[in-house]
Amino acid sequence: MPEIRHLLSLNDLSVSEIEAIARRGVSVSRDPGVCGRPLSDRIVGVYFRATSTRTRTSFTTAAMRLGAQVVSYGPADLQLNTGETVEDTARVLSGMLDGLVARTVGPFHELRALADQPRMAVVNAMNSDEHPTQALADLTTLLSRFGGLEGLSLLYAGEGNNTAVALARSLPLFRGVRLELRTPPGHGLDPVVLAESLALAERHGSTVVERHDMEELPGHVDAVYTTRWQTTGTTKADPTWRDLFVPFTVDSALMDRWPAALFLHDLPAHRGDEVTARVLDGPSSIAFEQAQNKFNSAVAVLEWCLA
Ligand code: CP
To answer: Which comes out higher in pLDDT, residue 238 or 280?
Structure first.
């Protein structure tokens, strides 16, 4: 039986594994021909319970480019919808598929149940807890632009959502990194995740700070990152939540503090909410290069899981 590896959370990967995936993503971005077709005898399922443009397309095309055949399931396709258990679904799919890239809507238990079998590698294409493949695309982008990850200073302004969690579980692994999170009050990182991230920073010689305002911004920032205010698959109970988010908008006045800083966004974007059109479409923005790196890093993830 071929060896497989799941990618459910960045907590499960070592710093060298994360760096190797990002480095491979950079190599693929520079020469897509390096991939070959190592998955030509494999079948990969792509199962999305929630909307997606980048992640679904990047993993589908990456699997195809690597030679795999792909079975695609939309939100209403599997008998999970009619009450079949996740455990039974995993048992059946793992007899037929070599890999499953899954965007689920809840926390980790569904993905962990899908991964609780020895034959089919499972990739977390985003759940409510974490978006690990987004952070891998982000690290690929930062590595490509800066030549290394150690010592980078990144300001993240926006909700402490699953993208923020993935960044908080990966960036502090790199020595000298400064991750400055600015999250609206009541919409910050889960305190358990923040505590884990602070512990990682302590262990690896990096710094993590979270504040719920835009005061005391760092003097030097290499990259500013924001994310949509309405994270896919979520709603906000408080009808006045927008008022809390407005001060965290990334606009030209914020970017002008650090003229050399690059702007990142996991997309989809809502111009006029979390970022102005001038910033997103301006010269410092590498958000669409970052989106392209979803494909390059998806190649690296599938190779790591299956090849
Ligand atoms: N950033 C991201 O995950 O995009 P999609 O929701 O379009 O996949």
So the answer is: 280
Look over the chain and give the mean of its residue pLDDT values, rounded to a whole number.
96
Quote the pTM value.
0.97
Give the pLDDT band (50/70/90) at residue 1.
Answer: low
- Work out which ligand 1 atom sits closest to the CA atom of 58: 8
Residue-wise pLDDT tens digits, 51-95: 999 999 999 999 999 999 999 999 999 999 999 999 999 999 999
Is residue 138 in contact with ligand 1, taking CB distance under 6 Å? no
Which one, of 138, 139, 225, lies nearest residue 181 by Cα?
225
In the chain, where are the structural domains located?
A: 10-131+294-306, 134-291
Q: Select the CATH number that applies to the domain covering 134-291 from these four: 3.20.20.70, 3.40.50.1370, 2.60.40.10, 3.30.9.10.
A: 3.40.50.1370
Query: What is the assigned CATH class of domain 10-131+294-306?
Result: alpha beta
Q: Is the CB–ligand 1 distance for residue 55 below 6 Å?
A: yes
Residue 7 CB partners (closer than 8 Å, separation 6+): 13, 121, 122, 123, 124, 132, 133, 301, 304, 305
The radius of gyration computed from the CA coordinates of the chain, to the nearest angstrom, equals 19
Q: Is the CB of 267 under 6 A from ligand 1?
A: yes
